[in-house]
Amino acid sequence: MTYSTIREILVQAEERFGPEDAVRYKIGKHEIETKSYSQLRRDSESFSRAVEALGQQGKHIAVIGATSYYWLSAYFGIVNSGSVAVPLDASLPAEEVCELLDRADVTMLVLDEIRGDVAAIVKERCPKLKILVSMQKEEHDGHWLSMERLLRDYEGGFSYEPSPDQLCTIMYTSGTTGKSKGVMLTHRNMAENATCLDMKIPSRTVILSVLPIHHAYCLSMDILKGISLGSVICINDSLMRVAKNIKLFQPNMILMVPLMIETLAKKLEEASMLPAGLVKNQVFGKQFHTIC
Hints:
Order of helices and strands: HEEHEHEHEHEEHEEHEHEHEHHE
Largest sheet: 6 strands, mixed
Shape: globular
Strand content: 15-25%
């Protein structure tokens, strides 16, 4: 089924798969936390309410950090409130982050607490920016608002219906051939790009998400495509721990870029003298069947 807004993707998935797992992620070395489709919709709508209450509805809101449940809740909450999400590379130097925030007219920033270097200079360097929200802090302080506190304080539904042709996301190019450019994408651009292709993926497929969340491929295919199919999205916390996380989450599918596949192929070649079935089970687990 093809959808024309991101809200349609999330609402339809929640109506079909409400209590089922939507997101799995690690807390500690071996413990897995889960969030259902109902929880994801509820938390994203609570964040939409917070965006509205903070006077940010319809404005540009950046998100910077590694893939996390709060990152997803913030993204869906932003775009489904009628605001514009600006996903940023979590590894960028603080000065470059500030430049991109200023160019995108960002007035609110949701960020991983490890980017305290950005928070330290952003108010001075980005005069348009009014609000900082931390994805880790449990309570507000003088400098940050707490996402956890916002979700508590503004808990409840949010019924805004974005237009398919409404701007929802600004994604910056990598800048490998020049200055990074902000690509303006509508709900229709994002939703149809993610759902128009029938990849013959069964619903409830377990996907290990290993690519950076600010990349169009990851956001479109791991997240939006995955949610449209009712998949279970498992969050890989580090490229250094992909092999361990494959064993932990036992995914059916992983989306990779060519360089990652080449590296994996070399590892498999090194084990070519061992039985193929044994290598597959040891490297990917017994449930695995697809690399895209």
